[in-house]
């Protein structure tokens, strides 16, 4: 069973289109979306429609939840707050009902899927280092947990020698993993190419896929919507 795992699409139609073109070439058995379909970029409705049509499972992200739980944006940065309020004005109401139907986690084939972290997933905590990863390994029993939220791809391995950073490729069958697949719509690891994960469960092998897309067009649409200029500028820098 091959899984394409995507996350943090953030209304970036150019990136989402390029992502699914690549997924189409790969032809995985399952496509799992870890949430955050909206905010930051200019086309939330179009992105939601694509995800609904193409993904087998979709997890609720914090930016998705904020479209019906308005109090959540009190913790947001200024730009995130502005984009979330803007999304409220342009999103089709039927998509709010869709977000309300989504779950915080999903499990299948000894794999857990969650937007931010398996430890209290409804609070959307970050897993950024081995210390935070250690607490999260205690929160799930599956061999692998796929996450997003930070927009930065990383692998944490729970091995006999402790919790360590790991690399993509062939995974160790005696270890357990927390894998962040990065972001499709707004990468923040210094690489502007969209990011998603490909996992072969039979081979126990993981690969981080990076694909170039039209950042200039996506940025131009952000400007046209009157959203903060920084949201447009950061796409070409991957920050």
Please, could you describe this protein's structure?
With 239 residues, this protein is α/β, with parallel strands linked by helices. It is built from eight helices and twelve strands. The chain has helices spanning 13-26, 44-54, 62-65, 78-90, 93-101, 130-137, 215-224, 229-233, and strands spanning 2-6, 30-33, 57-58, 105-108, 111-114, 144-147, 154-159, 162-166, 169-170, 176-180, 194-200, 205-211. β1, α1 (13-26) and β2 (30-33) form a beta-alpha-beta unit.
Set down the secondary structure blueprint.
Layout: E1 2-6, H1 13-26, E2 30-33, H2 44-54, E3 57-58, H3 62-65, H4 78-90, H5 93-101, E4 105-108, E5 111-114, H6 130-137, E6 144-147, E7 154-159, E8 162-166, E9 169-170, E10 176-180, E11 194-200, E12 205-211, H7 215-224, H8 229-233
Parallel strand pairs: 1-2, 2-3, 5-6, 6-10
Antiparallel strand pairs: 1-11, 4-5, 7-8, 7-10, 9-12, 11-12
